[in-house]
Amino acid sequence: MIRTAALLMIVVCCADSDDYCYNEPHCDPYSWGDTFPSCHPLLEHHHSPINLDHHMTRNDSLGPLHLEGFDVIQSGHWTLKNDGHSVVLQVGSGMEVSGGGLTDLYHTIQLHFHWGGPASNGSEHTVDTRRYPMEMHIVNMKSIHPNMSAALEDPTGLAVLGFFIDVVYAENVHFGHISQRLSSVAYKGQTTKIKPFPLMSLLPKHNMSQYYRYYGSLTTPPCSQVVVWTVYEVPIYISWSQLAQFTSQIFSTEEDAEQVTPLQNNFRHIHPTFSRIVSASKDAKILKGAAGQPFRSAAPGLLLSILLLGSFIFYL
């Protein structure tokens, strides 16, 4: 069966399958339900991503998560892969996530990215309808499960940490551990080895107590509603050139394809929260609503002026 095959082939949130895509005719997130019934938004009410807005509740019991092993260099090697849908970093064993309202221990498996195009933003979640340039997901599986198929049958089988990615003038040297190897995985199916580094160096480590929590789904087929989402308030900052490596230099097709296709806008559309509770952690900001217009690229002349002034650049 298609669903069973997808479960077995999943690399957590990014299935290594040609049965879905993002921005090709008759093949986008709105049509996934035709092949994967559980992706149909009218049949299920706990889909992700969602818009984060003022319809949330403060939960003072939500403190910082405990990220075991995130601040050390793991042994062995990690694998960076272009699976045709995203760039995935498989991190092996040695890291665990617990606390912060999670009732179980979760093993960290991989992280991957979602992005837009050269002139558009591509985060999956939005904040007051504003979309960030990118979003990074750290995927963790409940430790009691022997494999991913079992986790996808558990309503809280996965815990995903979501981080918005915004753009500033300076290079992020820690993010360079990944961005400097992207040329080796430009085309679908390509892999490269990466020397492990402290994963915490990528994260906004001084703001890890500020996040939003809700229950949702995978954002790729089979869209299983098994995810405890933790979306952090403070973004990761990278440079324009690091962003461009994703939006312009990664392809969803093999290197020898007759026509290579850039991998762009690999994000799923926003879904309604319905009756779900979205919680703000003890230290997170409660959003006020109507905070402004969606993030958008500024005109090149304006960006140049900002650069000359030496200011940080944000999407306005």
UniProtKB/TrEMBL annotation:
Record has DNA-binding as a keyword: no
Catalysed transformations (reactions): hydrogencarbonate + H(+) = CO2 + H2O
Keywords: Glycoprotein, Lyase, Metal-binding, Signal, Zinc
Catalytic activity, EC: 4.2.1.1
Cofactor: Zn(2+)
Keyword Metal-binding: yes
Boundaries of every Alpha-carbonic anhydrase domain copy: 18-282
Superkingdom, natural source: Eukaryota
Function: Reversible hydration of carbon dioxide.
SUPFAM superfamilies in the cross-refs: Carbonic anhydrase
Underlying gene: car15
Family per similarity comment: Belongs to the alpha-carbonic anhydrase family.
Signal peptide: 1-17
A Gene Ontology molecular function term of the record: carbonate dehydratase activity
Name of the protein in its database record: Carbonic anhydrase
Recorded GO CC terms: plasma membrane
